[in-house]
Design goal:
With 620 residues, the chain is mostly beta strands. It is built from ten helices and 45 strands.
Length: 620
């Protein structure tokens, strides 16, 4: 419930000295004694403005720097973070929250999560949580636990506006808050408070250490100074009057068209950087643009910092580089700070190709992007010149705090929820908590190993009857059901899942980032019955570019044919696989009609074997 500052908490009115003579069990009494010990509600309420400065250390990352934080009750704020490698400014002008990110991009935060958090902040500032009859807050006593050997009362506060819960640990003797645990559907933050000093008659912690889970990242905040009840220029809380424009269209053009390659349900576009044109994946599910570590090294870019981030299946190690000017089809971008990821271990294994990077929010957010799947064409519009005149469905979709669009969709007419619009996802997938809640893992389906920036993850592919999006109904969607929670993006509990390209290929899609909306039209392939792999095997490249069977669906065609994981594919119908157009072409062959038979020659333990693979409908 405490106001979050950047990726940590900084300024929280907590703790005090004082004492109690007997164990308390009334949480409201504990809270009142806490506020009395702090200095009293009158003094707390009398502190109407504040200015805080200090240092930030992200332990083990090589990132540290300074911050400045201004606030005016009940909600106005501005915080400037400078970690040298990256900078960020976040604020609230009393009407809405806003962010200026490390590339200077302004984001007005209008999403439901931010709106609810702002309302909670306002109500907490009015001490509504001290009202036992509150319609918003529920306060409960959770017993006694210890912090570093000190016995503490535990008081938990939940609310009706979101799923966040905060448990505070108050010293049983003096009501000083020694620790808090904030739990949301996606993560936890454990914060320790120390070095209390009196400011304007109120005790405040000058040192806070927060451990964030599941990443395990530790953030230390050391406050240098706190001033209260000072005059603050109200314009300080306002966002910049103009947004960054770090891109240029060709002379006289307000739009460029770019053909893309649709390979294994991913969108690949040619991008030139440093005089080298390479393929990049277009990915609205990436909260930042990413460059492959190998390509970054080839360009001679210097990486800085090292932190944990969330990939599709698990945690990933990320650092930062400055990407020099880059362009496609005459659309040119100035240098940007981007994330460095180890990408090509996966792409070499799955495609046998090097990937230069992922074009995420830092690229997409400047533009209006049209994706015509049937014609495999992208259109990039300058926001000032874009006017939509079509007959598609226009959806207001405030961009989330993680820089993504969330859309409402319904599966089988009953499983409703918000889904992440993820052009970087080949297919549809539920997030683990949603799938667990509805017991989807108990349904029949096909076992599958998926790969993403976070590595491999196990799931079950299940065919459902329908999925409805923006009033359009697509039949027989195949949706991945994760079989383990993991620590990546799919472990989050706030969304139902990810909407990927096996759904969007039915449509023409417009992503209007500047206006925070999505437009959906029926595409030329709407309702098309796209072929599905009927082999029951998964393939990958080895380090020396041989094609290997990596996984066999239990009881599937490959299993019945006597194939095994680890078999090296040599021939198909007597044709050496080296004469075929790579692994992608082999997978395409396995999408032929049911009943198609292939004679597969495989090498196993140094011996050659021939097996008859009969394709079948795996979802009947």
């Amino acid at each position: 419930m405490k106001r979050r500052l950047f990726i940590f908490a900084v300024f929280t009115l907590v703790v005090a000295s004082g004492s109690v003579r007997a164990e308390l069990t009334d949480p409201y009494e504990i809270l009142h004694k806490h506020y009395e010990a702090v200095g009293g509600l009158e003094k707390l309420k009398a502190q109407t403005t504040s200015f805080v400065t200090g240092k930030i250390i992200l332990e083990g990352t090589g990132l540290e720097g300074t911050f400045k934080h201004w606030s005016e009750r009940p909600i106005k704020s501005r915080q400037e973070i400078d970690l040298t490698v990256i900078t960020q400014t976040v604020g609230d002008n009393g009407k809405f929250a806003w962010t200026v990110d490390h590339n200077g991009k302004l984001h007005i935060q209008q999403d439901e999560k931010t709106t609810n958090q702002r309302q909670i902040t306002i109500l907490m500032d009015a001490y509504e949580h001290l009202n036992p009859k509150s319609d918003v807050f529920t306060v409960t006593y959770e017993g006694i636990d210890s912090v570093d050997g000190v016995a503490c009362y535990l008081v938990k506060i939940t609310n009706s506006l979101n799923a966040e819960e905060v448990t505070s640990y108050y010293d049983c003797n003096n009501f000083m808050e020694l620790k808090s645990i904030t739990i949301t559907p996606d993560n936890q933050e454990h914060t320790l408070y120390s070095d209390y000093r009196r400011v304007g008659g109120v005790l405040l912690p000058y040192s806070q250490t927060t451990t964030e889970f599941p990443t395990g990242m530790v953030q230390r905040v050391v406050i240098d100074s706190i001033a209260v009840n000072l005059d603050i220029d109200p314009t300080l809380f306002e966002p910049p009057s103009a947004d960054v424009e770090d891109f240029r269209f060709p002379d006289g053009a307000g739009v460029v068209q770019v053909p893309f390659k649709f390979i294994e349900n991913h969108i690949y576009v040619p991008l030139e950087v440093g005089g080298k044109e390479r393929l990049w994946v277009l990915d609205s599910g990436a909260g930042a643009t990413c460059i492959a570590k190998s390509f970054s090294n080839e360009l001679g870019l210097k990486s800085e910092g090292s932190i944990k981030g969330r990939g599709a299946g698990n945690l990933v190690d990320v650092s930062f580089v400055v990407l020099p000017e880059f362009s496609l089809a005459g659309l040119t971008f100035d240098r940007q700070k981007v994330v460095v990821l180890e990408l090509n271990q996966i792409f070499r294994k799955l495609l046998g190709k090097e990937l230069a990077g992922i074009l995420g929010y830092d690229f997409l957010s400047r533009l209006v992007v049209k994706i015509d799947y049937a014609n495999e064409e992208l259109s990039f519009f300058h926001p000032d010149s874009f006017r939509y005149t079509g007959d598609g469905v226009v959806i207001d979709a405030p961009i989330s705090q993680d820089n993504m669009f969330h859309l409402s969709a319904t599966v089988d007419g009953q499983y409703e929820g918000k889904w992440n619009l993820d052009l970087g996802a080949g297919g549809l997938s539920f997030h683990y908590p949603y799938a667990e809640k509805h017991r989807f893992a108990e349904r029949e389906g096909i076992e599958h190993i998926g790969y993403g920036a976070g590595g491999a993850s196990r799931s079950r592919l299940v065919k459902f009857d329908t999925i409805e999006l923006a009033g359009f109904t697509v039949h027989n969607p195949i949706i991945g059901v994760p079989l383990q929670s993991g620590k990546g993006a799919f472990a989050g509990g706030e969304l139902a899942g990810n909407l990927g390209n096996t759904l969007f290929r039915h449509f023409v899609l417009y992503l209007d980032y500047p206006r925070q909306r999505v437009i959906i039209e029926k595409g030329a392939n709407f309702g098309h019955d796209f072929p599905v792999d009927g082999s029951g095997i998964q393939l990958e490249y080895t380090a020396d570019q041989a094609i290997r069977i990596s996984f066999i669906v239990p009881g599937g065609p490959g299993d019945r044919a006597g194939l095994q994981a680890g078999d090296l594919l040599q021939t198909i119908n007597g044709i050496d696989v080296g004469h075929l157009d790579g692994l992608v072409a082999v997978r395409e062959m396995f999408r032929a009609k049911t009943g198609t038979t292939y004679q597969l020659g495989v090498m196993r333990d140094g011996a050659e074997h021939t097996r008859a693979l009969v394709l079948s409908d795996l979802f009947k």
